[in-house]
Structures are given as structure tokens and as C-alpha cells.
Design goal:
globular; 11 helices; alpha/beta; 295 residues
């Protein structure tokens, strides 16, 4: 079988043989509409954290839990999240999670920060409070419902995973299937800037990106180095904004293997979500992919 068009040699190797996949999935993995990974600039994730990537064959060979009949639900837990103008309601993020992963998702009751009992510090650069992520993850492990495959907490407070780190957008653990992400640095108020027209959609895009990125780690997806992909690592807000809203062919094949969704049905659900949320660029991108896959 010849290699799909538009793919670079390293991408073809990472994607693996496609002889046994369905025609629809093969067209979805063709590379159409996807951009290669750009060279990292100084200060970017790969410039600071060199990674070797994760090929599809390596993903298959790794031992991990996968959704089954007993644990086939995703859960979203608001952690001390206040209702504030410009910040998407948690229910909208739940809808994004459900469409992206083609699995049922539910919203859990909000938990006050004081209930977690975590270490905090004042960031030397921003002067703002940060929450220590290992304590949050330990708390979430105790809160994981028996029917939930992955539990993600969202918070409006800044996060740090270690004293040597300045901050982290989010962090997840594959083994325990829990994670936490912060929208603090995605909020103009964090930078003491006013909310401008259009900021609501910008914040929504950013929050969806970091949420589904961290949940992707819970499914065993490591940072992507083959394409410009939602699973790329990011070291700063500009790099995070440059990531697309979608996963690349390599990560899409891994996720389809883990979950077993129909690729057309998944894209259709994502298109409906993006249209309903007013994210027109993302809806248009999905519509193009569907046109190519159905051909």
C-alpha cells in the first residue's frame, strides 16, 4: 500500500501502516488540512523540553486502561470556580469534552478550594496565589467515581507542579486518570486587563484546548511532535494560542484506537458543538474534513 499523500516521512512512520483501517478512517488520516510541526523558537516547549514523540505503534504497545462498559464516562469538577463575566460556564466545557471524546460527560458539583487542603504559594513574578497540583491530584484520586474513566478539575487559580516551576496550565496523571487545569492565565483579569469585545470566544477556545489536552494525557496520548496539534506542549500563552483546536492524524488514530468511536460521527458532533458555541472557524475546519472523509 502506498503512503497517504501530503505526509512527511517522519509522519508516515509515526502514523503506521493503514492497510486494515476503514476507508473513512484512512481518509481522515490522509494529512489533508493538517500542518507540520513548526521549528521551536527560543522559549518554546520543545526548545526547553526536548521530546522524542510517541508513534502509533508505541501507543498500542503501552499498557493502559481504556474505557469499558463499567467506566465509560468523563467528569468535570469545578474547583472553587466563581461565576464571572467572560468566563464560559462549566456546562459548556462539559459539552466540549463530550463532543471531542465521543463519550458521555457529566458535570459534578462545585468544590470549595478550602475543602481540598492544598499547599499554596505567592508567585514571585505575578504576586498572585498559586495552588500546588500534587495535592489537587491526590484529592481527585479520592473523588474519582467508580463509573468515571477520567476526572478533570477546572479552577480559576494559577497552578504550579513543583517549586522549580513558574506555573503550569494543567497537569494530568495517566495511571490514576485525574487531572486539573487552570484558566487563570487565559483570563484578561489575571493580567489586570479589561474584557474586550471578542475575548469571551478567545477564553473559550483557550479553555477547551487545555481541557481536552489534559484529558488526552489520561487516555495515554503524549505530547505530539509530528504536526501542529492540540497535543503539542506549550511553555507560554503565545505558544498555546498557536496550537490548533484539533488533534493531528497520529493522535486521532491513537484516540480512535483507545475509544473506538466512528470518526464521522465524532466530527459531526464536534461540528454541532462549534456551531452552537459560535466558534465558526473551528466548525468550518470540521466541515472541510467531513467533506473529504465522506468522498
Amino acid at each position: 500500500m502506498t503512503a497517504p499523500p501530503r505526509l512527511l516521512p517522519a509522519q508516515i512512520v509515526a502514523l503506521g501502516p493503514l492497510g486494515r483501517v476503514s476507508p473513512e478512517l484512512r481518509r481522515a488520516l490522509s494529512g489533508a488540512g493538517f500542518e507540520p510541526m513548526p521549528q521551536p523558537a527560543e522559549g518554546d516547549w520543545l526548545a526547553c523540553h526536548p521530546e522524542r514523540g510517541q508513534k502509533y505503534a508505541e501507543f498500542v504497545a503501552e499498557k493502559r486502561l481504556v474505557p469499558d462498559e463499567a467506566r465509560r464516562t468523563l467528569a468535570l469538577l469545578p474547583l472553587g470556580v466563581p461565576a464571572r463575566p467572560g468566563i464560559p460556564r462549566p456546562g459548556l466545557l462539559r459539552d466540549a469534552l463530550e463532543a471531542f471524546y465521543a463519550l458521555p460527560a457529566r458535570l459534578l458539583p462545585r468544590v470549595p478550594l478550602a475543602e481540598v487542603g492544598m499547599r499554596t504559594r505567592i508567585n514571585a513574578h505575578t504576586g498572585k496565589v498559586q495552588l500546588y497540583t500534587p495535592h489537587i491530584l491526590a484529592f481527585l484520586k479520592q473523588r474519582l467515581p467508580p463509573d468515571v474513566f477520567a476526572l478533570a478539575a477546572i479552577t480559576g487559580e494559577d497552578l504550579y507542579p513543583d517549586e522549580s516551576w513558574n506555573f503550569v496550565f494543567g497537569i494530568a496523571t495517566l495511571r490514576h486518570r485525574v487531572g486539573v487545569f487552570s484558566f487563570a492565565r487565559y483570563d484578561p483579569a489575571f493580567h489586570e486587563e479589561p474584557l474586550r469585545p471578542g475575548d469571551e470566544k478567545l477564553v473559550l477556545r483557550r479553555m477547551i484546548k487545555v481541557l481536552v489536552h489534559e484529558v488526552g494525557h489520561m487516555f495515554g496520548l503524549r505530547h505530539c511532535i509530528y504536526f501542529s496539534c492540540l497535543m503539542n506542549g506549550s511553555n507560554h500563552i503565545e505558544e498555546a494560542d498557536a496550537r490548533p483546536q484539533h488533534i493531528c492524524p497520529v493522535c486521532l488514530r491513537k484516540l480512535q484506537r483507545a475509544i473506538g468511536f466512528d470518526v464521522i460521527s465524532r466530527y459531526e458532533a464536534l461540528e454541532r458543538f462549534y456551531e452552537g458555541a459560535g466558534l465558526d472557524d473551528e466548525a468550518a475546519w470540521i466541515a472541510e474534513r467531513l467533506g473529504e472523509i465522506r468522498a
